[in-house]
Amino acid sequence: MRNSGRIACSGFLPAAAPAIFSITPGPPWRTSSGGARQTDDMTALHLRRMAAAAKGETAIKDGPITTELRLPSRLGFEKVAMSTAATVAELMGFSQDRIEDLKTAVAESCINAIEHGNHLDEELSVVVTLTMDSKALEVCVRDHGPRRAPGGARARYRPQDARRGERAGNGMFLIQALVDEVEYVSEQAGSCARLVIRLKAEGAQGA
Amino acid sequence: MVAPTKTKVEQNDGVAVLRFEGDITSVSEDAVLGKYQKLPENTSKVVLDFSKVPYLNSSGIALVIQLMIAANKSSRTVACFGLSAHFVKVFKMLGLAKYTTIYDNESAARAAGA
């Protein structure tokens, strides 16, 4: 566990893909690898940056910082992503109402990935990558399913469309309405929902 | 992993108060629609108490919408209270204002339309 730089919390889930949490300074495509010393150095750097952010020094001068979660495809685990996203957004200085918006958008994206991407197959993981820089927080939610474009869900959604057991597009609608940018991307091994909330919008709202 | 929602139902003079406790999600159908469907026919007003609901997702909101639509079809008034500012916003964004009025507290929700 120490060498990988990841904290696995799978002990209570013997049959499920483990929930894994890792933090990586640097661009989002870098992964934490190498020996314990490298991991310790990276962790120390990360903690210094987080401490600076916590003091209100939200400018991240050395490039983006990435936090990654690997969740089993079981409903309820979206709350792990919610709380992590909230913590990162709080460190960046987002206001509480924007953090609540982000939590809902992240939860809905994870639920989509768990239900429609991975079809509740607990052997498949949903990977949530949170990348913070001085201007914005980007959240990518990856699953193993084909791309599910919103296709104008915002315009199509009507409350009276809600039917038994179906969400009738209200999840997609909320994601689009609550963050600054949403994009659905096909990838080689699945698809990714990319959400962005910007600190600039925060200032514009007078927060 | 997903804890079941509990619902306490209080009835008095045609007013039913459904007090939800716990998350409202896709597994909450019995707690939301099931409890609503068991209300006596003479119920004229339904008050929904969300003050002990820490988390509502879109599936849970869809169940609440179904309850509100059913109540509206039966000419019952629906009032809500106990929602956080965020979920008041979400309810309004999703158009629930068409089916319910959201109040700041229980006494206001009970008193409205009385």
Structure commentary:
The complex is a heterodimer of chains A (207) and B (114). Chain A is an alpha+beta fold. Chain A has a single domain, classed as 2-Layer Sandwich (Heat Shock Protein 90), CATH 3.30.565. Chain A has six helices and seven strands, in the order ββαβααββααββα. In chain A, strands 1-2-3-4-5-7-6 form a seven-stranded antiparallel sheet. In chain A, β6 and β7 form a beta hairpin. Chain A is globular and about 40 Å long. The N terminus of chain A is likely disordered. Chain B has 114 residues and is an alpha/beta fold. Chain B has one domain: Transcription Regulator spoIIAA (2-Layer Sandwich). Chain B contains four helices and five strands, in the order ββαβαβαβα. In chain B, α2 links the parallel β3 and β4. In chain B, α1 packs parallel to α2. The longest helix of chain B has 16 residues. Chain B is globular.
Biggest interchain interface, per-side counts? A-B, 29 and 26 residues
Sketch the major β-sheet of chain A.
7 strands, antiparallel
Query: In the CATH scheme, what's the topology name of chain B?
Result: Transcription Regulator spoIIAA
Strand content of chain A: 15-25%
Task: Name the strands of the widest sheet of chain B in spatial order.
Answer: 1-2-3-4-5
Mean model confidence by pLDDT of chain B: 94
Name of the CATH first level of chain A: Alpha Beta
Oligomer: heterodimer
Q: How many domain regions of chain A?
A: 1
Topology, number of strands of chain A = 7
Number of strands of chain B: 5
User: What is the H/E order of chain B?
Assistant: EEHEHEHEH
Q: What is the alpha-carbon Rg of chain A in Å?
A: 17 Å
Global structural class of chain B: alpha/beta
Number of helices of chain B: 4
How many structural domains can be distinguished in the coordinates of chain B? 1
User: What is the CATH architecture descriptor of chain A?
Assistant: 2-Layer Sandwich
Helix content of chain A: 25-40%
Shape of chain B, please? globular
**CATH architecture annotation of chain B:** 2-Layer Sandwich
Could you give me the name of the CATH homologous superfamily of chain B? STAS domain
